[in-house]
Every structure is written in structure tokens, then in C-alpha cells.
Amino acid sequence: MPTAGQRVVVITGASSGIGRESARLFAARGAAVVLAARGEPALHATAEEVTQAGGTALVVPTDVAVWAQVQHLGRAARERFGRIDVWVNNAAVSGYGELNTLPVEAIDRILDVDLRGQVYGVKAVLPILRAQRHGTIIGVSSGLGVRAVPLMIPYCIAKSGVNALYEGLRLEERHAKSGVRVTVILPASVDTPFYDSAASWMGVRPAPIPPVYQPRAVAEAIVFAADHPRRDIYVGAAAQLAMLQRLSPALTDRLLTAGGQVFARQQRNEPDRGQSNLTEPTPGNGAVDGGVVRFALPRSRWTRLVGFHPPWPGALLWPRLALWAGGWPVADQPRSADDGASCPPPVLPPARRLGRPRPAGRHDRAAVRHIPPPGAALKHPVPGESRAGPRPAG
User: Fold this and answer.
1) Contact 138, 222 (CB under 8 A)
2) Which of 23, 51, 86, 251 has an alpha carbon within 20 to 30 A of 136's alpha carbon?
3) In which band, very low, low, confident or very high, does the pLDDT at 236 lie, cut at 50, 70 and 90?
4) Does the structure show a pLDDT above 60 at 351?
5) Which residues touch 298 (CB under 8 Å, ≥6 apart)?
6) pLDDT at residue 339, rounded to an integer
């Protein structure tokens, strides 16, 4: 049983990357952390780190694409600790390549783990949280669930479905007054072993789309959400990508595909040797960092200024801070190690800049001359009104 005041946290995908760093941070706060993933050696290595950080660890090997195993995960956590306070759906896999080159079996597996796995997680924990009348579900999605990119289409489909899952769930739990809180984390690219483990049908190893963030930036958002309920928390350039998509999907298309950069940036100059964790876990003790980039940003200024604050101020600040705070999704290099931004976004052509008035042409000046002064009778009155004014009602 947990000690008095000890939080019980279940994390899927806990053997590496974001999940492993989140386990460390929760453990540093004295939490009991239930670690779920497929690779047992990596899970036990994570458990040692949790214990060293001051937490309590329980290892439950789990394939989130198998309902019986996810169901067992929830039961094992409750039997050991008596309750569950936070459930983090984080496990994910991917495969890179154009859709016409991806095997159907690979597509099925990606959708099973990345989407069905999160549905299973919700189904397993929801009865427990409802019975307790409290609890938090945190779903790790992606900025690519808001705006898809090529070479990762099945992954983008799954993350889009994850967003829909939590939108509907949030309304159901609010309507039921269950006390269950739901938060979605939407990171940009993160330097984890994800890119060394992902399958590739491109002939080369995959690479993250810059700017790239350290796993701790996302883990801090997850730990924050456990204490402070938020609808969505964007981490890094995912916020700017989402804003661009909402403003103009067509413009986002052109920016991403300019010069073929969204294709080139996802490919490393390293031949593929068949690495894949789609069907079998990556061997070894796992790791938090991936080391696939020379530099990863340690934090997201957007997340700290907007994502961690209540939704209304965040919504008002969105247009002003978006391009300033988090960078551009296809930027080259960050400006500094302490800056959550990368290179500034491209400037739109002068004639298209927002807020610049269009010079009045001949027809505009003519229209201005023919606007009647206040109180003057209209030549063609508005239907329902006379020259003396609006017709009285009734």
C-alpha cells in the first residue's frame, strides 16, 4: 500500500524516452510509479532509477495493443497500491516511409499501439477512477495529430484519433460529474530513442523534424498536468504548427513542402539496417535521450508562458506569443541553448501581410464619395424601413 499522501502513477511506455523521464520526475516527488512497457530489462533499469530518486516502483510488462494485458496492468496497480491517482498513456511506435511503400501489417501495428493502446488504457482505468470519484488521465499525443506530415501518415492518423478520444471522454466525464480529469500533451519533436527504434522503408534512418526538445520538457508538462488540470498542453513548436493549421491549411501545406524540406528533414545520412520495435521491444536497458541530434532544446518557452496557465489567458495570448515563443516547425537551428525558439518564421509577401491596409483604388475612392452623410435619406432604403426611419414593430 502507498504511504499517506503518496501518489500512485501508472505510465505506459515507461522503459525509455518521455515515459522514463516522467517516471523519474514523479519518483522525485515520492510517488509510487507503476512502470509498463514490453522490454523487461529496460523496465527493471527504470525501476532502479525510480527507487534511487525516492519513489516506489512496480514493474508490469505490458503490450498496450493487447486488451487483456492492459486490463491486468490496471488491476495489478490497484491490488498493489489500493488506488490509481494518475494514468499516463504514453506508449507509441512508428514506421517511416511513403504510404504506398508501408506494409499493411506495419500500418495495423502502429494504429494498434498508438491509438487502440490509448483506448485500452482509458477503458482499463476509468472504472477505477470513477469508483474513487477522482483521478487524472493524461494522454500523450503529438502536434502531428493536429497537422499531419508525409512519411509518418499512420502515426499522424493515430495521434489525430487520440485527440478525438480525449475530446469525447472529457465531455462524458464532465457530464457524469465523475471527478475524472483529462489532459492531452502535444509535443513537438523530442530527442528520444524513438527514432533509433522506428521501422523505416526509406532506405535510411529517420530523423526528427526540427526544432527538437529534450524529453524533460515533455515530462515536466506531464507532471504539471497531474497537479493542474488543463485541456491541452502544447510543448514547443507543436503550438505554432497547430496555429498555422487553424489559420490556413493551404499555407501550411506550402510552407512544409517548400523545397521538399519536410521530406529531407526526416531522413538521416545513415543507411537503414532493419531496426524496428514494431513487433519486438528494443533490446537492452533503454535510455531517456536518443542522441540523434547535436543539440536539443531543454525547455519550451511557449509551454511555460501559455501552456501552464489557465485556458482563457492562454487563448488570448495565443496569436501574439505563438510565433515568438516556440519557434518554427521547419527552422534550421536554435538561437541559443536557453531559448525555446528556433529561427523566425518566413515573412509573408508585403501585399499579404496582416494589418497592412490596401491602398484605395479608383473604385474605392468613388465609393467613399458616394457614402451619404449621417441623417441623409438613402436612395434605396433597406427593406422594412422608410426614409423616416425603421418601421415600428407590431
Assistant:
1) yes
2) 51
3) confident
4) no
5) 213, 214, 216, 217, 337, 338
6) 36
The CATH class for the domain spanning 8-350 reads alpha beta
State the DSSP code for 297.
B
- Burial of 34 by CB count in 10 Å (0-12 exposed, 13-18 middle, 19+ buried)? buried
CA distances from 252 to 62, 326, 328 (A): 38, 17, 11
- Closest CA relative to residue 346, chosen from 321, 325, 326, 329: 329
Checking if the pLDDT of 321 tops 70, the result is no
Report the helix count and the strand count for the chain, using DSSP H and E.
14, 15
Which element (helix H / strand E) includes 206? strand 204-206
Count CB atoms within 10 A of the CB of residue 291: 12
**Domain ranges within the chain, ordered by starting residue:** 8-350
Residues marked active site are found at 155
Q: Pairing between strand 389-390 and 385-386?
A: antiparallel
Output the pLDDT for position 374. Answer: 47
236 touches 323 (CB < 8 A): no
Residues listed for the chain? 394
The confidence score (pLDDT) of residue 239 equals 75
* Residue 309 confidence class, pLDDT cut points 50, 70, 90: low
